[in-house]
Amino acid sequence: MKRFFRCNVCNDIHWGESAPETCPTCQAYKAYAEIDEAEAAKIVGTVAPAGKRMTEQEVRAALAKFTEGKEFEINPDAAHVDYIIKGIMKNAETKGLKYCPCRIPVGDFEKDLGLVCPCNFFTHVTWAPKGRCWCGLFTKRK
Fold first, then answer.
1. Where are the domains of the chain?
2. Phi and psi for 129 in degrees, rounded to 5?
3. Cα separation of 121 and 123, whole Å?
4. DSSP-assigned beta bridge partners for residue 7
5. Under CATH, to which class is 3-140 assigned?
6. Which of 8, 33, 72, 110 is a good FRET partner for 41, with 20 to 30 A between their CA atoms?
7. pLDDT digit of tens for each residue in the chain (142 aa)?
């Protein structure tokens, strides 16, 4: 079944059975996460049919799949992860995209795309010293 995927480095959108190993736009390796049709439509500037949003469980599953075989994982603190996912879902509902709840969109669509979860958290100042992204959703795999 075909689905939408977004590169967390450059926001390239891919429609297919699975995400590409390497992003054809920025060459990032294994940087795609599954997104819903409404989010893909907003990023590319079209209108999606109503009712095509992912549920919290689908978001959690997509994020878990995103971490498979990588140097990071979803934080093992389930309560913390639940809190972050609720924030992601609230941002999707109120702002139209699944912005990380730890970052505040500034209203410039192009700049704000860098805040969509999963963002390019390897660039965060918390990644190297603390082994986590800003909000703590992702941590270095132990």
1. 3-140
2. -75, -35
3. 5
4. 32
5. alpha beta
6. 72
7. 999 999 999 999 999 999 999 999 999 999 999 999 989 999 988 876 665 789 999 999 999 999 999 999 999 999 999 999 999 999 999 998 999 998 899 999 999 999 999 999 999 899 999 999 999 999 999 8
